[in-house]
Amino acid sequence: MTPVVSVFAASPDRGRGLARDMAVRWALAEVGQPHDVRPLSFAQLKTPEHKARQPFGQIPSYEADGLTLFESGAIVLHIAEVHGGLLPGDGVARARAIAWMFAAVATLEPVIVEREVAVLLEGDRPWTPQRLPLIEARLRQRLDDLAAWLTGRDWLEGEFSAGDIMMISALRRPAATLLLGDYPGLAAYVARGEARPAFQAAFAEQKARFEAG
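The chain above was modelled as a monomer; its predicted structure follows.
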């Protein structure tokens, strides 16, 4: 069965590939797995039909061979486990690559999202001027640590892996991108990911769908 990925019918990022389905599209492209998409409006995301696929009414969801999954990290991990090429064969290296997937979604991305929320949704609140520098300091500490780890490395753990897909996807979020000018090593890391043919194919596919519709 060709996998079906639920995506925004009208992506709020205007085709920039920042929605969380992008990591799933990228992973599928890396392993050469074609897929179909199910474009959903914001109203359709909250319907019982979609919440049976994604309990929180978000994107993406993934359906293939009787399996329905939600959460981009879980979907990318499943793709990597079913297809070769995104996880090392060696057990220790494989565990390390999966650890980086968790680091992306549990250590780095929450601070990035917190900064975005503070700016976009809480910018007019009286506490934001005091809170924002604290959030940015936490984010910079995470970026400092990641930059130190990547010094002398092209990818997180030897060869490119699913861990890099999730980490680069987190770093492409606007709140992180705004700071990458201070982190040339991280900027180069993101650029290496974006230069991969599979990323380019996935990006072009989602952008064409946005422009068509």
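The CA atoms of residues 9 and 39 lie 4 Å apart.
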